[in-house]
Task: structure prediction
Amino acid sequence: MSEGAAQRDLPARLARVIAMQGPISLTAWMGEANASYYSSRDPFGQGGDFITAPEISQMFGEMVGIWMADVWARAGRPERVLYVEPGPGRGTLARDALRVMARFGLVPVVHLVEPSPALRAVQAGAVPGAIWHDDLSSVPEDAPILLVANELLDALPVRQIVRAAAGWRERMVALAGEEGQTRFVPVAGSNPMDPAVRPQWRDAPEGTIIEICPAAAAVMGEIGGRLAAQGGAALVIDYGYGAPQTGSTLQALRNHAHADPFATPGEADLTCLVDFAAAAGAAAARGARVSGLSGQGAWLGSLGIEARAQALAKASPAHGEAVAAALHRLIAPEQMGELFKVLGLAGGDWPDGAGFAGTPPA
Ligand code: SAH
Result:
């Protein structure tokens, strides 16, 4: 079956599975829906479903490149270094960051982790010479890594646990409605999940939802272990929260608008807010050092994005307004400046990267 056909078939396939074996976990639902979504299209930019920071302006990738060049210089300029990016989208961030790094004499080997064949093809155009991997496990282990992941963790499948009358239950997806007019609906499953709930939330009111992201913990654990064993530094950037919270943050984005996450599996991007305390904890548990957690606006500001915006506007006055608008979108508190956060990690004998001074470790 072609990829397009497989994707159109996803709702029917999920309906068959549920009809035969009963409700499926929300984790399985989100994993299937996003795998199908990302493998079949290039969802980014004005014509797609959503726009990410590197697609808003080249300044974003440039600041990542400056951050990497700075921490590499302070680590003593090791000759062999790996640039590692899981979930590189269109390859725009890598292209912009690598261009800046080369100016500082830093030319790493580029390793991209991307399961989607459609996106690999797009990335090949932006980053010639890159090496691709299905997951982090095959990235070489013989050199320090400079890793960045932007909007990766939010796309990984979450597990939701809901407080039902009888206790905590895993949230599942079931079929409702008459035959021929069925729809997908979230329900509380039957397996008790009470042991998975933090003690302070055990007695939360009925209907309370708790999210856990085992896939994000696995990725962060691998990143933390690599940093500890190989040395290097990492940036994990996403929208999320610093202190643990309850409530469902599952959302679907289609054509830049919110959609029903259960209506069209595979046709919309499903995301959840990132639990940064859990993400940092998973990396630290494998030996990485947490350099800090900063709002995206403050972090970009401390790297010098405003001076870069002025220089770009001066070099090309016709684009001055567009540059100012992009800067505002990236750093203003009511835009991406505070909801989006930057987690810094370091490992081995590498120093902490810039931009986290004064921020309490997560
Ligand atoms: N970093 C890019 C793209 C963000 S979208 C940007 O900022 O524009 C999420 C990206 O993660 C896509 O490239 C998607 O294909 C990829 N992805 C989704 N699941 C993944 C997984 N399990 N491992 C690695 N990449 C994944």
User: Anything to note?
Assistant: The chain is about 40% helix and 25% strand. The two ends are 46 Å apart (CA to CA).
